[in-house]
Amino acid sequence: MPQPRVEKLITAIDIGSWKVSAMIAGRTDTGELAILGTGQRESRGVRRGFIVDMERTELAVRETVEQAERVAGTNIEDVWVSFSGGSLVSDVVTVERDMGGDRVEQADIDDLLATGRQGIDPDGRIVLHAQPTCFTLNNKVNVKKPLGMHADTLSVDIHVVLADGAPLANLDLCVRGAYLNVNSIVAAPTATGLACLSEEERDLGVALIELGAGVTNVSLYAGGMLVGLHSIPIGASDITDDIASAFGIRRSQAERIKCFYGSAMQNRRDFREMIEIAPVGGADTAMSQAAGPNADGGRITRAALVGVICERLNQIMAEVNGVLAGMGFNSPTGRQVVLTGGGAEMKGIADYAQGALGRAVRIGRPRGLTALPEAHSGPAFATLAGLALYGASNPVDLRTMAPAHQTVHRVGAPMWWQRMMRAIRANY
Questions:
Q1: Would you say 262 and 271 are in contact if contact means Cβ atoms under 8 Å apart?
Q2: Are 136 and 223 in contact (CB under 8 A)?
Q3: What does the alpha-carbon distance between residue 55 and residue 63 come to, in Å, rounded to a whole number?
Q4: Which of the listed CATH numbers 3.40.50.620, 3.30.420.40, 3.40.50.720, 3.30.590.10 matches domain 199-363?
Q5: Which of 77, 193, 311, 320 to pair with 352, CA 20 to 30 A apart?
Q6: Identical fold between 1-87+164-197+378-396 and 199-363
Q7: Which residues pair with 94 in a beta bridge?
Q8: Could you tell me the CA-to-CA distances from 7 to 29, 33, 141, 151, 395 in Å, in that order?
Q9: Which residues are in the SHS2 domain (predicted)?
Q10: Domain assignments of the chain as residue spans, ordered by start
Q11: Spatial contact of 297 and 288, defined as CB atoms under 8 Å apart
Q12: Which CATH number fits domain 90-161: 1.10.10.10, 3.40.50.280, 3.40.430.10, 3.30.1490.110?
């Protein structure tokens, strides 16, 4: 049987606070997206999602892409890049057009979208995404494709993601310094949602919590679109730092202990299980004092480790709960939570989050890709996989449209929210 022919290459680069990863995917003539090569390097120039060392970040990007190119056996020039900094802001803009009962033509849709582009107020920020998500006929019926239908009024909800300009410029400069062309910078929650969430979940309502190394992104989806976004400047690397500080060990050993022995749930056996550690400087007395009563020479109990982990997780989940409450996540649209990111790989994290948040929680892993390496199939690589899916779908973005001069009515937030809630109630 002949192998599918690759028609288009898509390269994604996820620049995070802990790692820089790259993925080269090929869209085949059968419509599948197949993984051809991957690469990964430690991130040394990014903190809390922002570039703090241009040279180190540029070097990491170059080495990561070169590794992926060797595996794929091809050279690439254009890439899709993620941005997960805490300056991301999400909004929904709704514009409306009078149709007078006429049939909706393509020109009507184009004029509506072009005018929607003019209606976006970035307020000094950069528009990362401006994508139409849902059309509405007569302020009542939500449709995906209104072409050919009769309507008195036609409106569209436009999902807008904004970010501060300086961090984006630094990110773009680092990637171009590695001799790569940037197709687009994509908000990490947007990419992650494509990889982890089904269309039905996004339509009925779901919260996506991405527990990254330096930042925890909380996104709320409802009515098929991203309606809320908030970044918390705490992540899984803070747990590593807590372990290193509590037991007087290096960060590298703390990360290893967290990955091999760490858990978000404690049991009775943890008080008997001992873990070997090597304190900085090798001083047993100093280490014992730093590790507390659960230390025994060069060893600690697993219970002590889990206690340190849970203390930081309690803080993170308290912040997440506050953010979800502020987004109105106490309605039927907020019963499902999807947890992803590198921190979601910790043992017992789903059960812990379910108890802390009081909602059903599942771990979000990337899907929709073929030949995905097992090492890249976990939640830590959801954003990277989502970037590849985003590049392959190349969604409509109003930023590329030419402006149009049309008279429309701007609809305030309560109107689009009421329409969305009507659509959600209809599904229950």
A1: no
A2: no
A3: 12
A4: 3.30.420.40
A5: 193
A6: yes
A7: 157, 411
A8: 6, 10, 38, 40, 18
A9: 10-196
A10: 1-87+164-197+378-396, 90-161, 199-363
A11: yes
A12: 3.30.1490.110
Question: 210-244 pLDDT, tens per residue?
Answer: 999 999 999 998 877 788 889 999 999 999 999 99
Show the beta-strand stretches assigned E in 224-359. Answer: 225-232, 274-276, 295-296, 299-301, 336-340
The two structure tokens encoding residue 362: 């599942």
Beta strands 78-83 and 181-187: pairing type? parallel
**How is the beta sheet containing 299-301 ordered, strand by strand?**
274-276, 299-301, 295-296
174 in Cβ contact with 51 (< 8 Å): yes
Tell me the residue type at 328.
G
What is the amino acid identity at position 61? V
CB 211 within 8 A of CB 232: no
Q: Which residues pair with 185 in a beta bridge?
A: 81
Radius of gyration of the chain (CA): 24
Query: Tens digits of per-residue pLDDT, 94-141?
Result: 899 899 999 999 999 999 998 888 888 888 888 988 888 888 998 888
Instruction: Please list, in sequence order, all residues whose beta carbon lies within 8 angstroms of the beta carbon of residue 398, skipping any fewer than 6 positions away.
Output: 113, 114, 116, 117, 120, 130, 131, 132, 158
Partnered with residue 393 across adjacent β-strands are none
**What does the block give as tokens for 85?**
């900094």
Report the half-sphere exposure of 191 (CA within 13 A, side-chain side): 30
Architecture of domain 1-87+164-197+378-396: 2-Layer Sandwich (3.30)
β-strands 216-222, 206-211 pairing: antiparallel
Which helix (H) or strand (E) is 316 found in, with range? helix 302-326
* Of 130, 190, 169, 152, the residue nearest 403 (C-alpha): 130
Measured distance CA(371)–CA(39) in Å, rounded = 15
Averaged pLDDT of the chain = 86
The residue count of the chain comes to 428
Q: Given the structure tokens 């899984």, which residue do they identify?
A: 236
